[in-house]
Structures are given as C-alpha cells and as structure tokens.
Amino acid sequence: MTTDAPETRVARAWAQILEWLAEYTPQSYAALRPGASDDDIAALEAALGAEVPEELKAVWQLSAGEDGVNGSGLMLGDWALMPLDAVAEVHRRQMEIEKELGDEGPAFWEPAWIPFCSYGPDDTVYGLYLDGRTGAVHRWTRYGDRDREYESLPAYLDLMAISLEAPLTAAGPEKPGMLNGALVWGPPAGEGADQWVRHLGQAPPRHPAKTLGAIREALPGDERDAFDERRDALDLAEPEAVAAFLDHWWGRAVEAQEKLEDDIASALRGNIMAQPGRDLAPEHEAALPPALRHRPPSFDDIRTALRHESVRARFEQDRLNAIPPHFPALLLRWWDIARLMADPRGDRAVRAVVAGRHGARRRG
C-alpha cells in the first residue's frame, strides 16, 4: 500500500478548496494572490536562511498569500494566508527576539519554524507556523505561546476542505459561512454577526463563477490555448474590454458545461441503472479514493465514494434488490458511477438523474 507524499496531499486539498472558493465565495477567491514562482520561493528561502518544506511550497505555488476581504482571512480558524513578504518579516522579527533572549530557557523561535497564517492580512502578532523538522502546525503568539494545533499541514488543509464540502460535519467551533459574499469562519462576534449566513452544503451553482480561473477550468481542453492567448493580450486598463472578454468566454464555458452534463445524462439514459462508461480527466482520476483507482472496489468503498445520501440510497436499494449472481455486474456499474461523480459536473448530472430533474433544456 502506497501513501501519498505530504505535498501531493496538500496540492489536492488546496485545489479542492480553491474550487470551492471560486464557486461559492468569488470575493474570497479574488483576494488570493497569484502563485509563487520557483525564483520567488528561492528568494524567500534566502531571506529566511532556511528551506521551505515541500508541502508549504505546494500551497504557495498555487496561491502566494491573500489580501483578505474586509479585513478577514479565509483559512480555517479565521486565519489569513500570509503573503511571502509578511512571512519573511515575521520570521526575521521572531529570530531577532530569539537572539536577544539568548540560550536560556526554551527556544522563542527557530529557523525551521515557517509562519504561513496570521490573525489578519495586516495583523501578524500571532498565527500559525509549520515546523520544518517535525511537520506539525503550531500556533504562535506575541507572548511566546507555542501550542501544537494540527498534526501536519496536510491534516490542516484536509480538515478545511472537508469542512467546506461537508459543513454539517465541520469539527470545532468555527463553521464556514458567508458575510457580504466572502468566506468567514464563524459565527463572528461583534460587527457583521447578524449578517453572517452559515453554509449548509447547498449544491454548487450549475454554471462556473465568472472568474478567469473558473471559466478556464470549465472550457474544453482544446479551447484553453485560445483562451490563454486572448487573455494575455487583454488590456486590463480597459474595463469594457475585460467585461466583454469575460462575457464571451463565460458563455462558451456555460455551453460546454451544459453539453457535458447532457452527454452524461444521455449515457445514463435518465436511469441510474445504466452503465455510464465514461473516462475521467486526469485531475479527477487523481482525486478518487485509492480503492477506486488501484484495485477492484468493495461495496463499502463504493458507498463512501458516492458522496451524497440520495445517490447512496439508490445504491443501497439496488444492492438489496440484487441476487448474488448479479453482484459482479452491480459492483462494476456503481464503481463507474462513483468514478463519474469525482468530476463536479458529472456529480451534478448524476444527482439530477437520481432526483428525476434532468430533461431537455432549451438554449436561447
């Protein structure tokens, strides 16, 4: 049995979180900074005088910090993801205090302690750091508190991703919710508390968010080069041109997504009992539970991967109605459906068929 490397787990969880942000809270998604280059991270390591762990690089390569929305961060625990310049500054400041204190007593700060979250985008008096030697995530305060909070960065981001995808099972006092279109872990105290709305796992919108990343992801693979070329040639100083660009490509993304969902529903023929027989894109294949990728699955493997109770109920009904000689065909059919649901668009189409909602759609 193989175990994914920490940086692989982190990249998968963080990509899942980014997709959720783009669909549900586009303001928070827009507040994230672009990913860091290899040169950016090398420069940071030179400033720190320490190596950045691979799992933290995996986060920063996708998003090198955030600017926050209304002073609030988006990370689990109501933290803000620190920009790289803030990381370097906090590390430098803490190491200076360590030198002033000398060798007496426990360490105030060590070179391998890499901060990555703070109280707010502009408030770095306390936050979270990754211990590069042990892999554990600790909380720091200005008073020298160093409390272990999470076993590892992958564990922290896995918990965040699960809390967003299945909010009713979210552990701890902080629950995901929305405040003025941004993700805020709450319920918050004080100002804005009466406007905060807890997220209860509503189905994601059928159409992609009107952001560059969400639109590109929804486009067919053979159209992404043209999208990239026209995006790079766009003059961002002309709001009308930007709006026209987004309108055009969003319309194309919606059209492509609806065709994909129609194709899936057609393969199912309006009946969950049909064999879908559809290959997954590599990124969705990689997101599958290992049991569904590398060995024939068990009924428990499949039930877990189906994700939604309405679909699981159909699966259980099918299993109870089957006789043992039919089990192999039953297992393979539901294995394929579980794989199909790894793609968010396939997930929506399967649930629409189960609920009897899918019908011919008229396009204007």
Q: What does the overall shape look like? A: globular
Q: Percent of residues in beta strands?
A: 5-15%
Largest beta sheet: strand ordering: 1-2-3-4-5
Beginning-to-end CA distance, first to last residue: 51 Å
- The helicity comes to 40-55%
Structural classification: alpha+beta
Indicate the mean pLDDT.
79
Number of separate helices? 15
Radius of gyration: 23 Å
Structure notes:
The protein is an alpha+beta fold. Residues 271-278 and 358-364 have low confidence and may be disordered. The strands form two sheets. It has a five-stranded antiparallel β-sheet. α12 (299-305) runs parallel beside α14. It has helices at 6-24, 26-31, 38-48, 54-60, 84-101, 153-165, 212-218, 224-232, 239-268, 282-286, 290-294, 299-305, 309-321, 327-340, 344-354, and strands at 80-81, 113-120, 123-131, 137-140, 146-150, 175-179, 182-186, 197-198. The chain is globular. The longest helix has 30 residues, at 239-268.
Please outline the helices and strands:
Elements: H1 6-24, H2 26-31, H3 38-48, H4 54-60, E1 80-81, H5 84-101, E2 113-120, E3 123-131, E4 137-140, E5 146-150, H6 153-165, E6 175-179, E7 182-186, E8 197-198, H7 212-218, H8 224-232, H9 239-268, H10 282-286, H11 290-294, H12 299-305, H13 309-321, H14 327-340, H15 344-354
Antiparallel strand pairs: 1-2, 2-3, 3-4, 4-5, 6-7, 6-8
Question: What is this structure, in a nutshell?
Answer:
This protein has 15 helices and eight strands. The protein has 364 residues and is α+β, with helices and mostly antiparallel strands. The longest helix is centred in the last third of the chain and has 30 residues, at 239-268.
